[in-house]
Every structure is written in structure tokens, then in C-alpha cells.
Amino acid sequence: MRHTYSQVSVFKALGTTALQQAFPMRWFGFGFNAFGQIRVHDKVMKGEFSDAAEEVKVKSPTELSSHVDRRDCCLKNECQKRASWSRRASLHFNSDSCVCLAGSDSFESCNLLPMKQSRGCKDVLISESFLTLAFSDRIECWDLQKEAKTPSWSMDIKTHPESSGPPVKLPLVPGGYMASKLPLYRPLSPHLRAKRLALSSEHAILLSASGAVYTWGLGSHGQLGHGGLVSEEEPRIVEALWGMPMSHVATGGWHSVCISDGGDLYVWGWNESGQLGLPSRGLRKALQQQSCQQEGARYRDASTSPAEELKEGDTHEEVFISIQAFPALLDITPACEIRTVSCGSRHTAAVTTKGDLYTWGWGDYGQLGQQTLLSSDEPQRVEFFREQQVHVTDVVCGAWNTFAAVVEEEVARS
Question: Is the Cβ–Cβ distance between 396 and 87 less than 8 Å?
């Protein structure tokens, strides 16, 4: 039976989780892979050490290995990923949902007690040290550095039959949120009416039920969006966005982004690696130096060095942005609407309502999916997925890598 909804209408009408549960999903990863977060090399599986570049840097989107998914708890209908620097968590939704880990020392992590204790889990959050599991009646936090038989922290949840609307997602929990370091539980004022929360190691960005955006934490790189470099101890509304309801927020190491109800993307913070998609002097200089090194042989017998030639040829004045302390509207060419976005430490990835994936920022580990190790301060479409005739429905960034969920083109059009 064919549905009459257009591809764009389906993508806008269904949330990410609904899309993943409604259609068969495939997940691809690219970028930093030193701990087997994306794929596990045969030498790693055999316990042999190897530091080959192609094992550490996955520059082309690669379908995720299923070797950790062979346990009885890990079925193919997984629909959610979370990632940290060295780990990836997969939440599998089925009649007896559970979590599996990949990366770090967790190649066989489905055997670990926390994984067995994750049956029935509704949401998951992972950091380098802790795994947080959300159930319908409780929150549990497990210390990944210890082989404990009980969670290091837990909280019971009281459900109210009269409550309406979708449940909040981690790191939000009733009354507050879960941090990636001690103290794990941090309270939030109920007046904020938090709907979504994104955390970096040093700052936070919160989306309220009304679509307002609040930030707090370290502000040294303009990542709070208040126009200065001052830190904030308490949530402060981003006044530059006042009156424009937002639908999604995300944060990188030192930058922040949000999506308006109309699908516009706003960015602010540090732009040293082009992670805002704005012209970066540092990035352009690094690319020029790399070009000079590659082309240097052609100029050894010439009177003008490649650096001098580049300087002489650069007659126009371009405005470079190192720190963007106020939210800036980012234009992506061709014009498109953004449905979801995620940030790594110094890169950003966004999915459009038409199912395209755009990436920009630091790319030294291939985390931009452009089949190179180059960085970029301009949003670029990941052509791999178009060539494969698939539509991207979700994206999740680890610190130095990226994971994208796709459906077949025929499914997206049905």
C-alpha cells in the first residue's frame, strides 16, 4: 500500500524516533575509530595491536559493524545512537529493549552487567566515565570504570496519569539533568519548563517548552551567545533569539547551534576549525600551508614561493570570524530546511527535510564524511548517501566522529 504523503511531509511530520521505528534503519559511521566505535579490524578482534591510519581514520561512510549486536538482546531494529569520544551506545527498541556498547574496551560489551541490566530501557546517555539508563520508573547511572553489580546512582520516577506530552529525553530527568561528571545530578528550576538539553564538557544549552533558548557555563569562546566572553553560573536566556521559537538545540566543545521552527539554523561560539560554517582565518591558513607543502616541489626553482604567490593573489578582503558571540543565521547552499543537527568537538552535521546530510568544521579524522581528511568552513553535502540512493533521517556526533541513520529512497518516497 502506497501512502500519499510526500517525502518532505513525512520527514517533517514524524519525529526522529518515530521515523526510526516506522521504517527499517541502517546506520553509517565515519571519523575517529581508534577504539572500534565504527568498525573493528581483524587484528583488534584477535587481540593484536595495530595503529594503521585506515583503522583509526574512517573517511568514507561505513555501515556499522554488527559484531556486537549478535547477542540475544541486540536485534536489528535498533533506532537510537549516542556517542562519546571513545564509545558508542546503541539502544535497540523491541519487546525487550536493551543497550549495547562499542568502542573503548567494550568490544564484547553485551556481556557486561550494565548491559544485561539495561533490558526495558527507554533512553540512554553515554560519556567517557558513565552510562545513564532511563526506564519508565527509574534512572540509573553506571560507572564504566568499575565492574559494579549495582548502579553508582539511581532515582525513582513517579509517573502521573494526568501528565501529557512526550517524556523528556536524557540528559533531562525529572527536576534536573544528568551531567557527565560528578555531581551527576544537577537540579533545574521548574520555571524553565525544559524540553531539551544539550551538554558539552563546560557549557549547556537548554530549549524550553515555549521554544526559548537558555545557556550557562563557560563562555570564553562566545559559546553562550550573550555577546560577550563571560561565563554564567545560572541559565540565562539568549536574548538575540527572543521571539523566534526554536525546535532543536545542540552543542559542541566550544560552539552551540539551534534550529528554528521554520528550519533555519543559528550558530555561535568558537570558529577556529570552521565548525560554525563561517569563514575561519585559522582554517584557511592551515589549508594554505598544506597546499604549499604539497605544491612546494613545483616552486623550488622559481623565484616566488607558493606562500608569497597566495599572498599576492589574495587581493580581496574577506571577513574572517574566530569567535561569534551572538547567534548568526547560517545560510546553506542550495537553500534548505534543517530538521536535526548534532555537534562534535569541533565539527557540525545537519540533516535537511529532504534527507541530505551536510557537514563542516574539523575533518582530520574523516568525520565530515567527504572521503578526505580535510576540514571545511563551508557546509558541504555528503554525496555518498545520494550516490547510495538513501535518505538520511538522523545524525549523532561523537567528539571526533559522526553517525548517520538512513532509509532507502523508495521508503522515503512511499
Answer: no
Neighbours of 240 (CB within 10 A): 17
pLDDT for the residue numbered 15: 53
pLDDT tens-digit readout, 11-20: 445 555 555 4
User: Cell for 231?
Assistant: 561565563
Contacts of 326 (CB under 8 A, 6+ apart): 222, 225, 227, 240, 268
Q: Where are the beta strands (DSSP E) in 21-159?
A: 26-32, 57-63, 78-83, 87-92, 98-103, 123-126, 130-134, 138-143, 153-156
Confidence of residue 309 (pLDDT cuts 50, 70, 90): very low
H helical segments located in 231-362: 281-295, 306-313
Identify the sign of the CA torsion 84, 258, 204, 254.
positive
Sheet of 57-63, strands arranged across? 57-63, 26-32, 401-408, 390-397
Asked whether the predicted pLDDT for residue 111 surpasses 50, the reply is no
Separation of alpha carbons 273 and 258, rounded Å: 19
Three-state DSSP state, 153: strand
Average pLDDT for 49-64:
81
Query: CB-based burial of residue 88 (10 Å sphere; 0-12 exposed, 13-18 middle, 19+ buried)?
Result: buried
CB 216 within 8 A of CB 224: yes
Which pTM value belongs to this model? 0.86
Q: Whose CA is closest to 286, among 336, 243, 338, 346?
A: 346
Which residues are 83's β-sheet partners?
88
